[in-house]
Automatic annotation (TrEMBL):
Domain Methyltransferase small span(s) in chain numbering: 75-187
GO biological process terms held by the UniProt record: methylation
Protein name: Methyltransferase small domain-containing protein
Species this protein is from: Adineta steineri
GO terms, molecular function: nucleic acid binding; protein-glutamine N-methyltransferase activity
């Protein structure tokens, strides 16, 4: 079955009995998620790791904090859904909602579809650059985008810009335009800290200063992907912090 599904790689051309699985299975909130096996070197690798669990905690906290008087979650979306953990969590929390998982990575969309079926929830996996291919507003938007600078610009890892925050900023822009009244964006991402300054925070602060949106910003891990500081891209950075940005429309 694994050969038929093309998720086996022969380890050695001369040894037909040695094979390696191209997928792994991880558990989260009582569900199983298929994702790319280590090492994730291919452009369309689908990552699942420590960031996924921190992202899940952010979603869990936001769902728990949502006031009973808040508008019902009718439409929700996970931008850059990867293996689909965010979308599956939303579908489990709001079983009557229309939940989308969007990504530009076709391998991610296939795995999101499989993982949603394993969890017995309805998730619409849709190829979309941000929210361009789906219409309407959303009551809840979540995202755990790539936020590093990757020299190979692999889809699952490269966030764009000089320090990896370009995609995260684009998600904020796209989401703020599509939040329904009472809607919320939960963005888990990373930010380079340079000379003590959180560059992503400063950019978001300027962007939202004149808006009527309510927002909070929290550093949830002060030092992630420390090995990246040894690369030329982060030579001038102090550290990379994991952060959660929450934006709500009244």
């Amino acid at each position: 079955m694994m050969r038929k599904a093309q998720i086996l790689r022969q380890m050695n051309d001369n040894d037909t009995d040695s094979w390696q699985s191209l997928v792994r299975i991880s558990s989260l909130d009582g569900e199983l998620f298929l994702h790319s096996a280590y090492p994730t070197l291919a452009d369309e690798s689908v990552f699942f790791g420590p960031d996924t669990y921190r992202f899940a905690r952010a979603i869990r906290a936001a769902v728990a904090a949502r006031q009973p008087t808040a508008p019902s979650v009718i439409r929700a979306v996970d931008i850059g859904c990867g293996a689909g953990p965010g979308a599956v969590m939303l579908a489990k929390a709001y079983p009557k909602a229309e939940v989308f998982g969007v990504d530009i990575n076709n391998a991610a969309l296939r795995l999101t579809t499989i993982n949603a079926r394993l969890a017995n929830v309805n998730v619409i996996a849709c190829h979309s650059d941000l929210l361009k291919n789906i219409q309407g507003d959303f009551d809840l938007i979540v995202s755990n985008p790539p936020y590093l600078v990757d020299q190979f610009k692999r889809k699952y890892r490269h966030g764009g810009g000089s320090l990896g925050s370009e995609l995260s900023v684009a998600i904020v822009d796209a989401s703020c335009e599509r939040l329904a009244p009472g809607g919320t964006l939960i963005l888990y991402t990373g930010s380079a800290i340079v000379s003590g300054e959180d560059l992503f925070y400063e950019e978001i602060k300027k962007k939202l200063a004149q808006s009527t949106l309510l927002w909070t910003y929290e550093e949830v891990d002060p030092d992630v992907f420390g090995e990246e500081l040894e690369t030329e891209f982060y030579a001038h950075a102090d550290r990379i912090a994991a952060v959660v940005l929450t934006i709500s429309r009244l």
